[in-house]
Write a structure and sequence with these properties.
Radius of gyration: 25 Å
Pfam families: Myb_DNA-binding_2
Organism: Cirrhinus mrigala (Mrigala)
CATH class of one domain: Mainly Alpha
Number of strands: 0
InterPro entries: Homeodomain-like_sf, SANT/Myb, Zuotin/DnaJC2
Protein name: Myb-like domain-containing protein
Largest sheet: none
C-alpha cells in the first residue's frame, strides 16, 4: 500500500511540474493563441498601441483592420492575425502600472536616441551689413 501511495505521489508531482512548465511557457509567449503569438518586439508593441489608438472601438472589423495595419507597417515581417492582435492587446491591458511605465520609458528612450542622433548645427554666420 505504501509503494502505491509513493508511486501516486510521484505521479502527482510530475503532473504538477508539467502543468507549471506549461503555464510558464504560455506566460512567456504572451498568453494562449496561435503560433505567431511569440516574437512581439518592442517596435511591434509600439505599433500595436498606435494602431489600437488609431482605430477606436466601433470601427467595422476593428481587429482585422488593426492586424492589416500591423502587417503593412511592421518591419519584423511576421504576419499577425486578428486573434493574435486581440490576445496581445488584452495582455497589454492587464499589465500593472509599473510595467506600463517601464514600457513607456523604454519607448521614450528609443525616441530620444533616434532623434538626438543628428548633432545640432551651430550657425556662425555674421549678419549682413548695409553699405550706402
Amino acid at each position: 500500500v505504501q509503494e502505491v501511495n509513493i508511486q501516486m505521489q510521484k505521479e502527482k508531482e510530475a503532473e504538477m511540474q508539467a502543468q507549471q512548465a506549461a503555464r510558464s511557457a504560455e506566460h512567456a509567449s504572451g498568453g494562449g493563441g496561435g503560433v505567431n503569438n511569440r516574437g512581439w518586439s518592442e517596435e511591434d508593441l509600439q505599433l500595436l498601441i498606435k494602431a489600437v489608438n488609431l482605430f477606436p472601438a466601433g470601427t467595422n472589423a476593428r481587429w482585422e483592420v488593426i492586424a492589416n495595419y500591423m502587417n503593412q507597417h511592421s518591419s519584423s515581417g511576421t504576419k499577425r492575425t486578428a486573434k493574435d492582435v486581440i490576445n496581445k492587446a488584452k495582455t497589454l491591458q492587464k499589465l500593472d502600472p509599473h510595467q506600463k511605465d517601464e514600457i513607456n520609458r523604454k519607448a521614450f528612450e528609443k525616441f530620444k536616441k533616434e532623434h538626438s542622433a543628428v548633432p545640432p548645427t551651430v550657425d556662425n554666420a555674421v549678419p549682413s551689413e548695409r553699405f550706402d
